[in-house]
Write a structure and sequence with these properties.
This protein has 347 residues and is an alpha/beta fold. Helices cover 44% and strands 15% of the residues. Bound molecules: iron/sulfur cluster.
Length: 347
Amino acid sequence: MVDRGAPEFRDFVELYDRAPLLELGRLADAMRWRLHPENVVSYIIDRNINYTNVCVADCKFCAFYRRPKHGEGYLLTFEEIGRKIEELKALGGVQILMQGGHNPYIPFEWYLDLLRYIKRHHPIHIHAFSPSEVDFFAGRFGMSIEQVLRELMAAGLDSIPGGGGEILVQEVRDRVAKKKAGADRWLEVMEIAHRLGLKTSVTMMYGLGESSADRIEHLFRVKQAQAKGGGFTAFICWPLQPEHTELEHLGKTDAVTYLRTQAIARVVLDNVPNIQASWVTMGMKVGQVALRFGANDFGSLMMEENVVSAAGTTNRTTLAEMQRLIADAGYVPKQRRQDYTLLPEAA
Ligand code: SF4
């Protein structure tokens, strides 16, 4: 639990709210160099595969999902997913990020068969099923979190993404995502995953009408979970993309808020090794600046992105442009694996 009255907590809220922007950036940059003394910015070539958009969670910030029986609802076939993986591999991709809605029509065996199918026919690193999905599986199929994860791992799951983290403060989640895994449950899934040996990423989506203290509480809770299991490889934050959602009235937060938020995350999360810049939501230029505000990773050359683009934000790049953007910002671009180890240079 987080004590909001503790001096350390209040100091971080103060720093986040009041420090001059460049001062906050300098602190984050110093932490970045302490953890990553090399002048390298990593990136990965991967592909988002959203296996279904059918969902019963009704998150107010989501423009991607369709209710059951909606005419635009879909579920990809194994063969369609296999074809996407082959396209990714042809571009040098090394992992898939596979997430979907909480689809009540899919049996648990389908997920296991899918993982086995991918490993047998299109072997690749499978980074899939956020804690919210894992929690949904547990509830739907009457299993414990540990049982769900063990079965997914046995079928081929390699690591899990930090989707659905939003703000890990229950009052905030109650307002925007009441039917989804709560803050405690989301972290519980992560802690069990870490105990079972799975690496995971961790995220924060802000701009849901929460306070600065709520954001700092989110970071403190992530830091506490990391102190127990140590399985978070990277933190990524981005603002709500409100277009076409029920939260359209909240509007979009600005680039300065993004830079401040990423910077304070780098400073608080001194036990999470990597920070990924979210150029997909913020655009390339802010992505470059983010490298001076604590980020040491430029994220993914995504071949496909469906969730952010459903909310009206579309930023795309090529491998050559991504490398140029990193180099122009003053760093050496290097491709990495899912676990953030660098791939050897091509001969
Ligand atoms: S964010 Fe995920 S869980 Fe929430 S409505 Fe969208 S698809 Fe469903």
